[in-house]
Design a protein that fits this description.
The structure is a homodimer.
Chain A: E1 4-11, H1 15-26, H2 28-35, E2 37-45, E3 61-63, H3 66-72, E4 77-80, H4 88-98, E5 102-105, H5 108-124, E6 129-130, H6 141-148, E7 154-160, H7 163-175, H8 179-188, H9 197-200, H10 203-217, E8 227-228, H11 236-245, E9 247-258, E10 261-272, E11 284-291, E12 295-302, H12 306-321, E13 348-357, H13 363-373, E14 378-385, E15 392-398, E16 401-402, H14 403-414, E17 424-429
Helix pairs in contact in A: 1-12, 3-4, 4-5, 5-10, 7-8
Chain lengths: 433, 433
C-alpha cells in the first residue's frame, strides 16, 4: 500500500515545532501503516540555526526565510508553528496557498483574525487548512464539531479554553494564595509566559472561541465579536466565597444562539460544583457542545504543551494524506454568515457581587435600597470580616436579573461612601450538562 | 454548490430508524449548505407497513425485503438499523457491499462478530462502512480515535459503554434500592428491554469494546477476546460499601496494551470518587482514550436513544457525501493484526472483597490465614452487621495482588464454614485521567 510520499515543510522549530518533527519521525512506520503513505520532512525554517534542538536535521533543507520555504521547497504541506496573527505567519500562510500547497497550523490568532480571507483563498485553489491544533491542543474538538456533529444544529459551545488561567484559578483555590502568587507559580512551571497578558486577559481564549463559533454556527470568524474579560481582578476572597457558596470560578469561553445572533463571551464565571466543567483543574481544557439531536457532548484533555499540540498537527497532516478534506470551516466560505453582533448579547443573568464596606450603621440600608430600585432580587447574602478593625466583605448572589440593571446598580453601589473598593461582580452560569 | 443528490435507503424503521428519517428531513437545508449535496431517502424497509410512525412515506419506495432493497433500490448508501449480528442485518450488509453501495449502521453486534469480513469486502470494492452510531451513540469516539488521534499510539481505551447498566448502578446508589428494583425502574423508563440480558450481562458493552479495541490498536475485531462479567451480582451492600470507601461502582469496558497483546475486559469495578468517570451518572456514556502524544482525552455524552443515535448515523452519511473515507478500522483490513489473546490478561490488580460471615469465634483467624497463605495484603477492612441476629458483612480492600492468588483465595474463603454466601470480589481500577 505504501506508494507515495507526502513532503512536509516545517516553519518554526520552537517547542511545538520540535515536537512535531520528533513525533513524525517516531511515528513514521505507524503512520505509513495507517495511511499507505510515507511522510517526509524535506525543509525547515527557524530563527537560530545553531541552537541544539536534539533533532537530526541533516536530511532537511534549512531556510532562513520561511516565506521562501513556502514558495520554493516543493513541499505538499507547509506547517506553520511560528504564531501571531500577522507578520511572518500571515506571509507564510499566504505564500503557501498562493503556491498550491496545503497549510497546517496551530495558530489561533491567525485564523481568528484572518479566517475568512485564508479560507476563501484556500477554497478557490482547492486547498485545505488544518487547524485542529489551534483550539484546545490535543482535543479533537474541531473534528467533533465539523464532522462528528455535522448532523446537528449547534445550540451552544462553551469551554475552558486557556490552561494558564485554569491553572491559576485552581492554584488559588488549592493553595489559598492570591492571584500574583499563583501567576508566579505558573511562570515557574512553564505554564505562563514572561508577559502573560494574552492568557490572563482572555485574548487567547477569545481567539479559540472565535474559531469554535465559526465552525459551530457557520459564521465568519470575527474576533471583534467576542466580549472579553480576563482574570486579573479575581481575588482570593472571591475564590473562597465561591467555594463556600458551592461554586468554582472558571474562565469560560461561551458561544450560544440568541435568536438569530450568537453571543460570544470570554469571562471568569461561577459554575456550580458538580456541573460538567467544575472538576476540570490545572492546565486541562474542556469543551461542551450542545447539539440539537446529539444532546450535550463534552470533551476534556490537554489543551496545550508540545506533545499534545504536535498530536493535533500530525493528525491534520494524516487527514490530508488520507484525502480527508471537509469544508475548512464546516461550510464553504461563501456560505458563512455574518453574525448580527448588536443583538447577540444575552440580556439577563445571575450574579455574584462582592462589596467591601466599612461596617457603619446605615450602609446596608443604602445597599438594599440601590438593589430595590433596580429590581435586583437577592438569592443569598454572606458577610465576613477580614480581620478585627478591617473592612467587611459582603457577598450577595442574585436571582435572574437584567444585565443593564446590574451594571447600573454596580455603579451606584460604588458611589456609596462606605463602599471602599470597586464592587466585584461575577456571572453565575447555570451550565448543565 | 448544490449539484448532486445522495440517494439513501433505510432498512429498519424502529425508534432509531424513524429518528434518522425525521432528522434527515428536518436538517435537509442545513446539510445541503454544509455538503453542497442534496440528501434524499428513496426507499425504506420495515416489518409492519401499516404502523403509524408519524413519517411522510409517500415519496419513498417501500420494500418488504430489506435485502432486495439493498440490491435493487438504486441507493448510493444503505443504512441498516435492524440490529443483530446475523440474520437480516448480515444479509443487508452483504448485499449492500456486493452491489457497490456504501453502508452505514448502528449495529455493534454485526461488526464485533463480522468486522473483518465486511471491512475486507468493502475495501476490495472501494466502499465504506460508517459505524459511528454503533459505539456510544452521539459521542464521536470512532472519529476521535481513527482520525483525531491518528498520530498516536493508543495506550488504553476505557469507558462506560452501556447506559442501561450505568443507570441501574446510579439508581441503586441514589435510591438505596436493590438490583431488581433498579432494573424494574429502568424498564419503566424505557432504558432497559423486556429481556435485559444483553445489557446487564455486559454483552452490549463488549460488542462496543471489540470495535473500539480494533480501531484503537489496529487489531482484528474479535468479540471472543473480551472477558465479560455483568452486573447482576452487584448488591446494594456493595454499592453502599463502595460509597463508604470513596468509590463508585461502574461497568467499564477496558482495552489496554499489555506487552504485545491487548487486554479486553468488561466488568463492574470500583473507581475512586473524583476520577474522570466517577461523576458520569444515569444513561450517559463516557470514553477515555490515552494516546502516546495527546495524553488522555475523555468524551462524555448520550450513549443511546433515538436522536443521539440518529445524530451519529447522519454524520456518517454527511462524511460520505463529503468524500471523507478513512480506512474503515483505522488501517486497511490487510494490515489488521490478530491479538495474542493468551498473553493479554493483566496479572495483578487491587480488589474489594465482601464476605458474609456468621460472627463466631475463630472465623477471622481463618480468613486472615487464607489471605496470608496467598500473600494477599489488605489495605483496609470494614465490618457491618446487617441487623441483630443476622450475618455480618466483612469488607476488605487489598493492595496490588496476583490475580491467580486472588482467585485461589476466593475459592478457599468460600469453603470456610462460617462464610455463608459466595464471597464477592470487585476489581478496584486505579484509573487516573
Amino acid at each position: 500500500m505504501t506508494n507515495s510520499t507526502i513532503k512536509i515543510a516545517l516553519a518554526g522549530l520552537g517547542t511545538v515545532g520540535s515536537a512535531v518533527f520528533k513525533l513524525l519521525q517516531e511515528m513514521s512506520p505507524v503512520i505509513s501503516n495507517r495511511t499507505g503513505k510515507l511522510m517526509e520532512i524535506i525543509a525547515v525554517s527557524a530563527r537560530d540555526r545553531s541552537r541544539d534542538r536534539g533533532l537530526s536535521l541533516e536530511k532537511v533543507v534549512w531556510y532562513e526565510d520561511a516565506v521562501e520555504m513556502a514558495k520554493d521547497s516543493g513541499a505538499d504541506i507547509v506547517v506553520e508553528l511560528i504564531g501571531g496573527s500577522d507578520g511572518i505567519a500571515f506571509d507564510v500562510c499566504d505564500a503557501t496557498l498562493s503556491n498550491g500547497k496545503d497549510f497546517v497550523t496551530a495558530n489561533k490568532a491567525l485564523l481568528a483574525h484572518h479566517g475568512l480571507y485564508f479560507t476563501k483563498k484556500a477554497e478557490e485553489a482547492c486547498l485545505s487548512i488544518g487547524y485542529e491544533a489551534a483550539v484546545a491542543g490535543a482535543i479533537p474538538v474541531i473534528k467533533a464539531l465539523r464532522e462528528g456533529l455535522s448532523s446537528n444544529n449547534i445550540l451552544s459551545v462553551y469551554g475552558i479554553l486557556n490552561g494558564t488561567c485554569n491553572f491559576i484559578l485552581s492554584r488559588m483555590r488549592e493553595s489559598k494564595c492570591d492571584f500574583d502568587t499563583a501567576l508566579t507559580d505558573a511562570k515557574k512551571l512553564g505554564y505562563a509566559e514572561e508577559d502573560p497578558s494574552f492568557d490572563i486577559d482572555g485574548v487567547d481564549a477569545a481567539h479559540k472561541l472565535t474559531i469554535l463559533t465559526s465552525v459551530a454556527f457557520g459564521c465568519v470568524p470575527n474576533f471583534d465579536d467576542v466580549k472579553i474579560e480576563g482574570i486579573r481582578h479575581i481575588s482570593d476572597l472571591d475564590i473562597s466565597f465561591a467555594e463556600e457558596l458551592g461554586y468554582r470560578i472558571k474562565l469560560l469561553g461561551i458561544a450560544r444562539k440568541n435568536g438569530k445572533s450568537v453571543e460570544q463571551v470570554v469571562y471568569p464565571c461561577m459554575i456550580k460544583f458538580g456541573s460538567p466543567m467544575a472538576h476540570v483543574e490545572g492546565v486541562n481544557n474542556a469543551i461542551a457542545i450542545k447539539g440539537s439531536a446529539s444532546g450535550p457532548v463534552i470533551i476534556e484533555g490537554q489543551g496545550a504543551g508540545a506533545d499534545p499540540t504536535a498530536s493535533a498537527v500530525l493528525a491534520d497532516i494524516i487527514d490530508l494524506s488520507r484525502g480527508i478534506r471537509p469544508p475548512i470551516l464546516g461550510v464553504s466560505a461563501e456560505n458563512l454568515i455574518f453574525n448580527e453582533d448588536e443583538n447577540a448579547e444575552i440580556k439577563t443573568g445571575r450574579y455574584y457581587v462582592r462589596l467591601m464596606v466599612l461596617d457603619r450603621s446605615g450602609v446596608f440600608a443604602e445597599v438594599a435600597s440601590a438593589l430595590k430600585d433596580e429590581n435586583i432580587s437577592m438569592e443569598s447574602i454572606l458577610q465576613r470580616t477580614r480581620a478585627p478593625g478591617e473592612t467587611v466583605s459582603v457577598v450577595m448572589t442574585t436571582h435572574e436579573v437584567e444585565v443593564h440593571s446590574m451594571k447600573r446598580v454596580l455603579r451606584r453601589l460604588s458611589e456609596i461612601d462606605s463602599v471602599v473598593e470597586i464592587p466585584r461582580a461575577i456571572r453565575i452560569e447555570p451550565l448543565t450538562f
